[in-house]
Amino acid sequence: MLRQLAFLCCSIVCAASFADGSNGRFDIYFIDVEGGAATLLVTGEGESVLIDSGYPDNHGRDKDRIIGVAKNVAGLSKIDHAVVSHWHMDHYGNHAVVAAEFGIGTFWDRGIPDTLQEDRSFEERIAAYRSASQNGSKSLNVGDHIPLKSGKTKLTATVLTSSRDVVANTGTPNPFADRHQQRDSDASDNAASLSVLFQFGDFRFFTCGDLTWNIEGKLMTPNNPVGTVDLFMVTHHGLPTSNNPALVLAVDPTVTVMCNGPTKGGAEETLKTLREVKSLKDMYQLHTNVKLAAELQAPTDFIANSGTTDTCKGQWVKASVAPDGASYTVQIGPKGKQRTYTTRTH
């Protein structure tokens, strides 16, 4: 009887510790979808945002990981807002099935194109998303805000790039503007990615989907309209077609998280750029790049998953911002070491 009572008490305490908004923290989960992207945010008011949803198929691997984190770790009963950064399958592949099995409130995207030059099956593949959203997804344009509830600590989510458009190039001169060298035009949908800046009190988190080099340069030269950030999700899985130094060095993050896979992303060129960041304290990777020497990557303690896909445990990385936005922690998985960082004055 005593054991049963103890178990019941433990269950109550564990349930209370879920990120359901009761503790006022702003939590960000970087879910391992093997080189795709799926980022779950839970606000201090208990509202949830899923940005991208990984690959379809793979026996439901990515879908199960997303729902597992949402339900069993974050303590959610549904997703309030689901965002698609752009129209590649590793980013919107599970929106429809997550909606069917777990529930999604409002769908957000950059607008659905009629065709996609790099995906001849796009019209067929997008059908499930159209059905799940009942053809009612809402388009996000530059300058728009995702309408999130804000409590004592103000929370905003501002769109800075969409469909190759960028916010006005205001702000102070970017001292790294000369690091942008124009490349050949990118006609893929990567260049049309949504970029969103989340601000919770003074804490700032910036995510750019798979935005590519020239649009990054367009956003950040000659001035810096973004300012500096605390946490930066390394763009495009850490591929060198993105992560223009004119952007990465100018936003000057304290912590970075790279959503790469064992053989996708985590490029040496991008890792070198990250090491140039003046204010960088730590960089995290979802995966070891099995093709790259260990000394060129993040330290082992800052990599969530090692080895190949076959042996991957699907560990997530979590950032958790204090209710006043003045500090935040980052850890790998439920048992990982929790490291604390102070939010900067931007």
Features:
346 residues, Metallo-beta-lactamase, Chain A, nine-stranded mixed β-sheet, 24% strand, disordered N terminus
What are the SSEs and their pairings?
Blueprint: H1 2-16, E1 26-30, E2 39-42, E3 48-51, H2 61-73, E4 79-83, H3 89-92, H4 95-101, E5 104-109, H5 122-132, E6 138-139, E7 155-162, E8 165-166, E9 172-173, E10 195-200, E11 203-207, H6 213-220, E12 223-224, E13 231-234, H7 245-251, E14 255-258, H8 268-275, E15 282-287, E16 303-305, E17 317-321, E18 327-332, E19 339-342
Parallel strand pairs: 3-4, 4-5, 5-6, 11-13, 13-14, 14-15, 15-16
Antiparallel strand pairs: 1-2, 1-17, 2-3, 7-8, 7-10, 9-12, 10-11, 17-18, 18-19
Q: How would you describe what is shown here?
A:
With about 350 residues, the protein is an alpha/beta fold. It has a single domain (about 25-330), classed as 4-Layer Sandwich (Metallo-beta-lactamase, Chain A). The protein is built from eight helices and 19 strands. A nine-stranded mixed beta sheet has the order 6-5-4-3-2-1-17-18-19, with helices on one face. An eight-stranded mixed beta sheet has the order 8-7-10-11-13-14-15-16. It starts with a helix and ends with a strand.
Number of helices: 8
Oligomeric state of the chains in view: single chain
Poorly predicted tracts of residues: 1-21
Sketch the major β-sheet.
9 strands, mixed
Please state the overall shape, judged from the principal axes of the Cα atoms: globular
CATH architecture: 4-Layer Sandwich
Based on DSSP secondary structure assignment, what is the total number of beta strands? 19
Structural class by helix and strand composition: alpha/beta
CATH fold name, please?
Metallo-beta-lactamase, Chain A
CATH superfamily, by name, is Ribonuclease Z/Hydroxyacylglutathione hydrolase-like
Strand line-up of the largest beta sheet: 6-5-4-3-2-1-17-18-19
**Which band does the percent of strand residues land in?**
15-25%
In which range does the helix fraction lie? 10-25%
